[in-house]
Queue: 2 jobs
Job 1
Amino acid sequence: MLRPNPLKRNILHVCYVTHEYPPLQHVGIGIFVQTLARALVATGHKVTVVGLVSPKDVGERDDKGVRVIGIAASQLPGIGIELNARKLRKLVEQIHQAFPIDILEANELGLAAFPRSFPIKKVIRFHGGHHFFSTMLGEKTKPLRAWLENWSFRHADAFCAVSQFTADKTRQLMNIADAISITVIPNPVDVNLFSSQTNVKSISGRIVFVGTLTQKKGVYELIDAIPLILKAVPHVHLQMIGRDTLDPKTGKSVMGLLTTRLSAEAQSHIEFLGVQPHDQIPRLLTAAEVVVYPSHMETQGIAIIEGMSVGKAVVASRLVPGPEIIEDGVSGLLCDPRKPSEIASALILLLQDQALRTRLGKAARERAVSHFSLTPIMERNLIFYRELVELSSRGK
């Protein structure tokens, strides 16, 4: 029988549920889990990551002490969801029996597989769920995903969010009572890994974007800004780093659609690099004069903080939660990502003013170190986890 762990030791065992752990995907949740998991293991704690993956990725591996287990996701129509839930529950039960789990953490949808009575403290961390992004982007929720997300929230023992805006908006959308606490802990960045590379020189006119090629990342407006920038900075060169996706309206490659928006001359100033190894991103950022993240919506945006940490002048969205991350005119520039002209104006200003780039880049690095460094953020997570486990040990 699966029993709760009363925590009779100093070592915590945290189990994260995600299918996005690198190198399977280079997206926010996966990078967050890997960064925090490695740090927890390095300080003596135990971390297991479980996820439903494609057949080619099934298996177990070690990632710098983090135990990563992928099990095959069923694609059977109708019963696939229940089969996958059973697989996850069985796997977590087996892990718990071998070494009791203190915390089981997932994203907004991730606890749907685990009943409320499952005797491990269960945490939902708000990275931006289906209700959140559907609402913020003006789209309709999909009935099945909406139901599963509601079901997942009913099973959680505690909530955590990566920004205050995400906490407040999710509370509203998911009808979380005011009496229920939502702990806000920003995503961490390894500021030692993400620092300026001394053997790499910045390239004049180089702009770097890092993110998935989707509409919500503002890629269409960014591309539309290029012809405007070319008029002022003829040698501008944009590198776009991130995986391609299919446009939901046309079913076509977003990268292909972006290319068709430009003349042949403008196309020669853009380079699509696709997905790059995470530990290579600091080198690519260092080569930039300016980095840009014109997202229409983020929960926080790890990529933005990584750009700041490398000490680059950053152009980001003034839409929430951008102002939680960047002080406009102090540690970066904020713009309306829905207006190519504003994106272009901010980038032109920085490309033409070295002194301003230097000042903003220095302040960006300082803010990244003071607000988003890995070690203090990890310690805040440990306090959050321990307080939750202590409540469990007292029978609350």
Note: Residues 85 and 113 are 4 Å apart (CA to CA).
Job 2
Amino acid sequence: MNLKTAILASAICFTCFSLQAQDTLPIQDSVPFYKRQMAKRVTNVLKTNPIALLYGCIPGYTAEARLVNETAVSLYQTVFIGASYLFKGLPLVLAEQDSAQNPSGVKLKVNGWRVQAGYKFYINGFMAHKRKKMTGLAPRGLYVGPHISYATARFTTNYAKSIGVYYRINFFNVDIQTGYQLIAGKHFALDVFTGLGYMKNDIIYYEKSTSYNVDTEEDGYFYNSNLKFVFGFNLGYAF
């Protein structure tokens, strides 16, 4: 092989290699940044609140076995849904045991459920996304977003149940929440939040085929105002 042939062969090989490299670059760049990073971080948080097992979402009446799952849908956005089973809360249990408040010794039967859902925009995650950084991405840090919740519980006694009589309390609220979610170590999560919104809460009396709304004028703020203040926290397992 002479010198000209060797130079020509080398040029052809270099050109082919360059074209191949140029062909692969768009494939790498076509993968969105967030998809390249999602597999490297926490994207789900399963949460509850142990205090709700004593004092739940219908104040004074119910306790709540709560489970909420939050899932990242981008580097700075998450959605969450939750479901709860409602049962007799500690304040009601203590009131039933107090002979002054409950001289007849009536024991109520309480059961119900709650569903909730929401969206979170993580401010620090948005800033990290713009800088193409891995630190501070959702579901960590400061967030803001809408939240909606509906809870209902039935209150009766063994005798009242046998004749089709019971009370039902319904709690509905929609609000804007802001909060901070801390993820420490590999799996521990703490979500603290507050907010403001609208609520509509009712007490309804049922007797066989009839029902009517109970007058709640003397039942306090939760039944006589539409302004909802939110403050709470959840503990969770991040994965």
Note: The radius of gyration is 28 Å.
